[in-house]
UniProtKB/TrEMBL annotation:
Lineage: Bacteria, Bacillati, Bacillota, Clostridia, Neomoorellales
Name used for this protein in its record: Flp pilus-assembly TadE/G-like
Residue ranges crossing the lipid bilayer per the database entry: 26-50
Keyword annotations from UniProtKB, A to Z: Membrane, Transmembrane, Transmembrane helix
């Protein structure tokens, strides 16, 4: 009797394996769909990182141009040479370069080909000549110890549907903040 039960159990197992050949196809289809969904999610997240990196480069270029607006009279003072950034000129150059690098119009609205999906806001811009200088913006704090130009910009970016599936609290648009500080590089003449 025990042998008959064991034999019947083997037959059931064999029958289940024999009938489950189609399940391999179902599992393959399921895992392929999961892999495609994860790939789409990674691409959506990668897009946001690429936009932020591109914006950081554009901000750095604008700040470098602004930091280059050095008062040559203060720098060439024989008694007390100092690096002084011209505030008005630095501001003009900063906004001009930022608009050009991010492809913005005169009101900071995106032109075709811009990475921003809405107006770019300059949240904070400061030419720092008197150091040390400390400031706070939200949870961010910084102390500047050299004459520099610092800025924080923000802009909206549309996010993909896969991120919204993972984070339903996100809307169709997320705001990206980018911060940078740049000091002029002075190379002494020999």
């Amino acid at each position: 009797m025990l042998f008959a039960l064991q034999e019947r159990g083997k037959n059931r197992l064999y029958q289940a394996i024999k009938d489950s050949r189609g399940s391999a196809g179902i599992f393959t289809l399921f895992f392929t769909l999961v892999a495609l969904a994860l790939t789409a999610l990674v691409l959506d997240i990668g897009y946001l990182f690429a936009v932020k990196i591109n914006a950081r480069h554009a901000l750095n270029l604008a700040l470098k141009a602004a930091a280059a607006q050095v008062d040559m009279a203060a720098l060439s003072n024989a008694e007390n040479p100092r690096v002084v950034i011209l505030t008005q000129e630095a501001g003009e150059v900063f906004y001009s370069c930022l608009r050009e690098n991010l492809r913005l119009d005169a009101w900071n609205n995106p032109l075709p080909g811009s990475i921003a999906d809405g107006p770019v806001r300059v949240e904070y811009f400061r030419v720092v000549n008197e150091v040390p200088f400390s400031y706070q913006y939200g949870d961010f704090r910084e102390t500047i110890v050299r004459p520099s130009v610092t800025a924080i910009i923000s802009f909206p970016v549309k996010i993909g549907p896969w991120i919204r599936m993972v984070r339903p609290d996100y809307g169709e648009v997320v705001t990206i903040y980018v911060h940078s500080t740049v000091a002029p590089r002075i190379i002494p003449q020999r």
